[in-house]
Design goal:
The complex is a heterotrimer.
Chain A (H helix, E strand, L loop, with lengths): L13 H36 L4 H10 L5 H26 L7 H18 L4 H30 L3 H21 L24 H5 L9 H18 L1 H11 L1 H6 L4 H28 L10 H11 L4 H25 L4 H15 L2 H17 L1
Chain B lengths: L1 H7 L2 H26 L7 H19 L2 H26 L3 H24 L15 E2 L10 H5 L2 E2 H19 L1 H11 L1 H6 L4 H27 L11 H11 L4 H22 L5 H5 L1 H29 L1
Antiparallel strand pairs in B: 1-2
Helix pairs in contact in B: 2-7, 2-10, 2-11, 2-12, 3-4, 3-5, 3-10, 3-11, 4-5, 4-10, 7-8, 7-10, 7-12, 8-10, 11-12, 11-14
Chain C lengths: L11 E9 L5 E10 L4 E5 L6 H8 L7 E6 L2 E3 L4 H6 L2 E4 L11 H6 L12 H15 L14 H14 L4 E5 L7 H16 L3 E6 L2 H7 L2 E6 L2 E7 L5 H8 L18 E10 L7 E9 L3 E5 L6 H9 L6 E6 L2 E2 L5 H6 L2 E4 L3 H5 L6 H4 L11 E2 L2 E2 L1 H14 L16 H14 L4 E5 L7 H16 L3 E5 L3 H7 L2 E6 L2 E6 L7 H8 L7 H5 L27
Parallel strand pairs in C: 3-8, 3-9, 6-7, 7-8, 13-20, 13-21, 16-19, 19-20
Antiparallel strand pairs in C: 1-2, 1-4, 4-5, 9-10, 11-12, 11-14, 14-15, 17-18, 21-22
The chains are: A mainly alpha, B mainly alpha, C alpha/beta.
GO cellular component, one term (chain B): plasma membrane
Keywords (chain B): Cell membrane, Membrane, Transmembrane, Transmembrane helix
Main location (chain B): membrane
Chain lengths: 373, 311, 544
């Protein structure tokens, strides 16, 4: 019939399709690059307008983190936590659940890890593993609450996770200021964890000063690979993907959608819990007030930037942390506020979320090529 | 326990409730207007923060509190329009765009303050003044009532007037009528020739204005300076109030007032032997439970409807 | 409001109008149409014939790619519904465009609210609506919320909306699809009254009987073109049908007689109380392995609900359902699929596919967790791909690669993906709902062949369709649903006519209980005698 709807891909020409796909991929990649460059350009302008020297600032920011080995360590340590948090939201995002609960999960994980690592005497290897496990469990539990509320009752997950964040942050604050505060200390923090529970610093391995960077880095890499395998190579991952893509289709196909949603929250929570353990066992060695800072929300940005692909989250996390670390160095060296980095990040988020832009571009390229032919 | 009751019924506490509830009320109404227009405004937090910072800075440099407040509100309106443009023109997810705007506000305000005042913490070094309070001659001298009502900031009055205003706007005016239609059924609105996007832009601008007023109150009503990240999650709580209030003006009013009262209570109890952090979790825990109950009831009603029809 | 109408000339017209969509689909091609004032003009055609697109251009929802639209005798550029409304055009859409939480009156006045200085005068709105309703004979309750009134009243609300805007041209897009016969009668009466008052009515339908009843003239569209316009008095259903369908009316399906074996699907006393939509009442029927049983009915009379209950997406309130001996009434969807049920859903975009996922992933939703695709908790992408390549080959899905997202496929190809998935599972029972809706003729023929092949391979097939031609061409037996009840059962479809079935669909005739339950076990045993129907499909028992 002549009115067969012509759609994007009707031909059976495999070569042509591959070309199209490669072109789309190239557009995506260059768009990402352009996004980052545009954000940096806006940062450049902002610095210029506010009377700073952007060239000097960018020089410090972009080369600083690699300057000295301990700065590299600072970068990697930050990237470890941030990437774990990015991974933790990428999984529920894959099920199209807007979980903003990484904050509650990371603090729950930190508390659980500290409780075990400070108070429970354990043999050497178990002393590291048990707190990690406790943290993952606590984070998973914190993910389960909004997950079950959403899956079983249909309660809005955005509100539930935000409320849970507010509660856990305050309880954490209370515990660190009260019951868990190190007796006799003037500063507010908990007692230090036992020596055996600490994640081995990378400095010990490489023999160069790498600050507080520790084997948590490898834990993070392993987690990312595991999650990538989960999403692409397991039935559960398939169910999470289909649930996110079209829940009605998933249900029609026999997938128990509420289960898939719950699992996505629980897995994400466990990973955020690990991020909390990393902060306690690897970075600070104890509970500090507000120890996760704004990392939980920045994890969302990292996940978005990586389009929720676990392996890409690692790249995005490393990149994002690099900017953060560079921003600090920039501030020390040039007097430009490190907050400019947050502005740059925000611009990246806004550009990334403007989904119509790359599609517009792809269509335009396709049209132009069709015109040429 | 007696002392708690004493506190709750003291006029100072009631006055504090009105004061503390002000930003929640305004921001929640901002969230409500956006939600009913069909675009979730998770950027309330960033709008408040930007307005608070802009207000304090402009007032400090220009010497005019009014100009500062206006500029603060204007910036929040611009952010609202930006959110609408990202959603409507560029196909952005409103939630994610909102997170981006919050990030932008957090970084932008801190950077601006640091660049201008070389201060990481806020604008306490800048004399910016605060918005006038309203004393009620006559009522002022009445015990309790006078102490509670008189001497409140003008923004507090605006916040409490916002409830009837939004209710009137939604249910009495042509604009509100169309806004609700657009938010609920954009195709239906478009099919009768209502310019859907224009209405949504207007809704988001109004939403921004209300959130901006909330922000201005923080830096120019409560206190007279801006502190970094001084909104402290109020925008998110306001958003929770929008849902908790069932997307209805008076429901949202009660929910936001409840959050304000709980926070005021936490502050008061902090002076006693109760850990303030724990007290301050009460409203959030209540919201969480209410959210679950509400959802559970809705789900059960859906089921009983099915069985009822079978009779 | 409509001052700019010319005194003479047609109320609406299209001159050489062509509409090509961005993706290259030419939905309307070179149409010339003139409708004078005060006429009821039916526009008929099959799904995808371009009638809706043409109407959307009259209403400003679409703009013609070339040619011109004339309203009130003058060429117009309609940038949106707003300009069409201003020119006196009103449209009642197939999916009603009402705000659910608003009252009838509020919906009627939406966009042109009474009141001063930006306020809405709700009392005036109610009064206006009541007055309009009385004048036009379209009974509504102005103060009732739209989501709480019947579909018929919603539709009347839509028409009042147009009248309130002083429409002089009213476009009705398949208005009777969701109506009961009584409501249809009332609607027709109101439409005639409007016509007598000078209204021009464009009536879109593919139901020829209704078209003959209501219209003055009929314009027939096929494949985007206007085939012709005839006076209704001179047209017969047969002549119209011949104009409408490009293919032979008795669509040739190469189909050997069925060889039904043992009963596969057994439904007894099935009732389902729908929270919204049509409930089902006391259904009982069998489908045997190796036969295709068609389900006819006016859309919205319980077909969708029946399909979803049988597929496990909705849980029946009472009654038993068994498939191949497995009691499925209490099982979840996965349990239904394990029992051997395949289901081609009526709306493939809604739940038939995950549009943004690859063809390969879409083909495995029901089997992603077992060998050969998954072993010991590991899903093998290579196996998924091989599986997809096999089905793409077998079902002639036109695509360069299994990794192509389903969204990029045409309607026919997308449907092939779904049919491939459901048939390749080797179902005992296949529920096929609107299986050829919106697909091209090539794909349609392909679907028919596959359904018959599945039947011959021993599957029980329950075929639900709004297309009677299709039902009669494919079904070995036919059931008719009305108001969620079984009202007709034809055990021999040879020689059965659409007209005959139509009478049952409309409730003019119905089979008695005896005829409906003949041959079923577990029901009153005294009615075993009559198990056949005459070749003309009449209800009288006669041996076959």
């Amino acid at each position: 019939m002549t009115t067969t709807p012509m759609t994007l891909i009707e031909s059976e020409d495999r070569r042509e399709y591959r070309v199209t796909r490669r072109r789309d991929l190239a557009v995506d990649l260059s768009m990402t690059l352009a996004t980052i460059l545009a954000a940096l350009a806006i940062g450049f302008l902002v610095m210029l307008v506010t009377g700073n020297d952007p060239v000097k600032a960018y020089e410090a920011m972009l080369t600083g983190p690699l300057d000295r080995s301990f700065r590299v360590g600072r970068w990697l340590e930050d990237a470890t936590t941030l990437t774990l948090l990015g991974l933790s939201v990428a999984i529920p995002f894959r099920a199209r659940q807007i979980s903003l609960g990484a904050e509650s999960q990371v603090y729950a994980g930190a508390l659980a890890a500290a409780a075990v690592a400070v108070f429970l005497p354990l043999p050497p290897v178990a002393a590291v593993l048990v707190p990690l496990f406790a943290a993952a469990t606590a984070g998973a539990g914190m993910g389960f609450v909004p997950g079950a509320m959403k899956a079983r009752l249909g309660a809005n997950e955005i509100v539930a996770t935000l409320m849970l964040n507010a509660i856990v942050v305050r309880v954490y604050d209370y515990l660190v200021n009260g019951p868990l505060k190190e007796p006799g200390s003037s500063a507010v923090h908990s007692r230090s964890i036992q020596q055996d529970s600490a994640l081995t610093p990378l400095s010990d391995w490489f023999g160069i000063p790498l600050g507080r960077a520790n084997i948590g880095l490898f834990l993070m890499l392993l987690t990312a690979i595991a999650l990538w395998l989960l999403i692409t190579r397991t039935p559960l991952g398939y169910r999470i993907r289909m649930t996110g893509s079209n829940p009605d289709f998933a249900e029609y196909g026999g997938i128990r959608v509420p289960r898939a949603i719950e699992w996505s929250f629980v897995i994400g929570g466990a990973v955020a819990g690990l991020a909390g353990a990393h902060l306690v066992q690897g970075v600070y060695g104890r509970l500090e007030p507000g120890l996760a800072g704004s990392l939980a929300f920045e994890g969302i940005v990292v996940a978005l930037l990586a389009r929720n692909n676990p392996l890409v989250v690692v790249v995005a996390g490393l990149f994002y942390s690099y900017l953060r670390a560079g921003g600090d160095i920039m501030e020390q060296q040039t007097d430009v506020g490190t907050e400019i980095v947050v502005v740059i990040q925000a611009v990246i988020v806004l550009l990334v979320t403007a989904q119509a832009l790359p599609d517009l571009l792809k269509r335009r390229i396709a049209r132009r090529q069709a015109g040429v032919r | 326990m007696n002392s708690v009751i004493d506190v709750v019924f003291s006029s100072a506490f009631l006055a504090a409730v009105l004061r503390v509830a002000t930003p929640y009320l305004l921001a929640a109404f901002g969230g409500l207007v956006a939600e009913r227009a069909g675009i979730s405004n998770i950027a309330l937090e960033g709008q408040m923060l930007s307005a608070a910072c802009t207000g304090a800075l402009v007032a400090g440099y220009s010497g005019s509190v009014a100009v500062g407040a206006l500029c603060g509100v204007a910036v929040a309106v611009l952010l609202g329009l930006l959110l609408a443009a990202l959603r409507l023109e560029l196909g952005a997810d409103a939630i994610i765009a909102g997170i981006g705007l919050n990030l932008l506000a957090s970084g932008g305000t801190a950077y601006a303050v640091y660049s201008l005042l070389d201060d990481k913490g806020g604008t306490s070094g800048l004399k910016s003044g605060s918005l006038p309070t309203v004393t009620l001659p006559g009522i002022e001298s009445i015990p309790v009532v006078g102490e509670v009502l008189s001497g409140q900031n003008m923004v507090t009055w605006l916040a409490f007037l916002a409830a009837p205003f939004v209710a009137w706007l939604f249910y009495r005016t042509r604009f509100g009528f169309r806004l609700r239609a657009v938010g609920e059924m954009p195709d239906a609105a478009a099919s009768v020739g209502i310019p859907v996007r224009h209405v949504q832009y207007a809704g988001l601008a109004l939403s921004g204005a209300l959130a901006g007023l909330a922000g201005v109150f923080l830096s120019m009503g409560y206190v007279s300076f801006f502190v970094r990240d001084m909104t402290a999650g109020r925008g998110f709580i306001a958003l929770a109030a929008v849902f908790l209030g069932g997307l209805r003006p008076w429901g949202v009013f009660l929910a936001a007032l409840g959050f304000g009262a709980a926070e005021a209570l936490a502050v008061q109890l902090g002076t006693m032997d109760v850990p303030p952090q724990l007290v301050s979790t009460i409203p959030y825990a209540m919201t969480l439970v209410a959210l679950a109950l509400y959802a559970w009831r809705r789900k059960r009603r859906g089921l009983t409807q099915e069985t009822a029809a079978s009779l | 409001m409509n001052e700019s109408w010319a005194d003479a000339g047609p109320a609406v017209a299209a001159h050489a109008v062509t509409k090509t969509y961005g993706n290259g689909v030419r939905a309307v091609r070179g149409v010339d149409l003139e409708v004078p004032s005060g006429e009821i003009r039916a526009v008929v055609g099959e799904n995808g014939a371009g009638k809706s697109t043409l109407m959307k251009m009259f209403y400003g929802l679409e703009q013609p790619s070339s040619g011109e639209i004339l309203i009130g005798g003058r060429p117009r550029v309609l940038r949106g519904p707003g300009s069409a409304i201003a020119l006196g055009v009103g449209m009642v859409h197939q999916n009603l465009m009402l705000v659910p939480s608003f009252t009838v009156a509020q919906n009627v006045v939406l966009g042109v609210e009474p009141g001063q200085r930006g306020l809405v005068d709700s009392r005036a709105a109610v009064e206006t609506t009541a007055l309009l309703a009385e004048e036009s004979g379209l009974a509504v309750d102005p103060k009732a919320r739209v989501d709480e009134v019947s579909v018929g009243m919603r539709q009347r609300t839509e028409i009042l909306k147009a009248l309130h805007r002083r429409a002089r041209v009213l476009i009705l897009d398949e208005p009777t699809a969701v109506l009961t016969p009584q409501e249809t009668e009332d609607l027709f009466a109101a439409v005639r009254r409007l016509r007598d008052g000078g209204m021009t009515v464009l009536f879109i339908s593919h139901k020829l009987r209704e078209v003959r009843e209501i219209s003055d003239k009929v314009s027939v569209m096929r494949a985007g073109s206007l085939v012709g316009t005839v006076a209704t008095a001179d047209a017969t259903e047969r002549s119209l049908a011949a104009m409408m369908v490009g293919r032979d009316l008795s669509l040739d399906v190469d189909r050997a007689p069925a060889r039904p074996a043992e009963v596969t699907l057994r439904v007894r006393d099935l009732a389902y109380d729908a929270p919204t939509g049509q409930s089902l009442h006391g259904l009982g029927f069998d489908v045997a392995a190796g036969e295709i049983v068609g389900v006819a009915g006016i859309e919205g009379h319980g077909q969708s609900e029946l399909a979803e209950v049988l597929a496990g997406l909705r849980r029946p309130t009472t009654g038993t359902v068994s498939v191949g001996g497995t009691d499925t009434a209490g099982l979840d969807v996965a349990g239904h699929r394990r029992a051997g049920i395949g289901y081609v859903p009526e709306d493939r975009l809604y739940n038939g596919a995950a549009l943004d996922e690859s063809i390969a992933d879409n083909l495995v939703v029901d089997r992603h967790d077992r060998p050969p695709l998954a072993r010991r908790g590991v899903l093998h992408p290579g196996a998924v791909r091989t599986h997809a390549e096999r089905l793409i080959e077998e079902y002639a899905i036109r695509t360069p690669d299994p990794s192509v997202p389903v969204r990029a496929l045409s309607g026919g190809n997308m449907q092939k993906v779904i049919v491939a998935r459901e048939l390749s599972a080797g179902p005992r029972l296949l529920i096929a709902s609107q299986v050829t809706r919106g697909v091209d003729v090539g794909a349609m023929r392909f679907m028919y062949e596959r359904l018959v092949a599945a039947r011959d391979a021993g599957a029980a097939v329950l075929l639900i369709s709004a297309d009677l031609t299709e039902l009669l061409a494919l079904s070995d037996r036919l059931l008719v649903l009305k108001d969620g009840r079984l009202v007709g059962r034809f055990d021999d479809t040879a020689g059965l006519t659409e007209k005959r079935v139509g009478l049952y669909m409309l409730g003019v005739e119905h089979h008695d209980q005896e005829q409906l339950t003949a041959g079923l076990d577990d029901v009153e045993p005294d009615d075993v005698e009559s198990d056949g129907v005459g070749p003309d499909g009449s209800g009288e028992a006669s041996a076959v």
